[in-house]
């Protein structure tokens, strides 16, 4: 196989990577998610913590950047971002409060390539209404 010129290599990389913006997003679509995330004064006797998304991102971003860079030349950047989004979902769910078994199974991820959604994952527990959450809290209160 003949060696590629530098220009040919750059063209191949350009075709693999493409142009535009690649963005990943992880969030929790529950009514109480933002409240639980931001309130550091809340107690979580069954595990979990406030700042579960922020902490998850800050503890994994170095590894994520390395993984995306490694996948860049093999699968392209989108596959690496998909993997990272799924990993951040998992890490954040483990850090989320476990009181009701809802929030810690409610993370969802999405990857956007040049503004278009190209991947979605989760949540394992769909968004619950305020009435559904109140019923769960009422039942839980009877057994505590």
Fold topology:
Elements: H1 6-17, E1 22-28, H2 33-38, H3 52-72, H4 77-95, E2 107-113, E3 116-121, H5 130-142
Antiparallel strand pairs: 1-2, 2-3
Helix pairs in contact: 3-4
Q: What features would you describe in this structure?
A:
It is built from five helices and three strands. The chain has 144 residues and is an alpha+beta fold. The chain has one domain. The chain has a three-stranded antiparallel β-sheet, covered by helices on one side. Strand 2 (107-113) and strand 3 form a beta hairpin. Helix 3 (52-72) runs antiparallel to helix 4 (77-95). The protein is elongated.
Keywords for this structure?
3-stranded antiparallel beta sheet, 5 helices, 3 strands, single chain, 144 residues, alpha+beta
Number of domains: 1
Could you give the distance between the termini? 71 Å
Report the C-alpha radius of gyration, rounded: 20 Å
Count of discrete alpha- or pi-helical segments spanning 4 or more residues: 5
Give the helix/strand class.
Answer: alpha+beta
Quick rundown:
By secondary structure, this protein is α+β, with helices and mostly antiparallel strands. The chain is 49% helix and 14% strand. The protein has one domain (19-142).
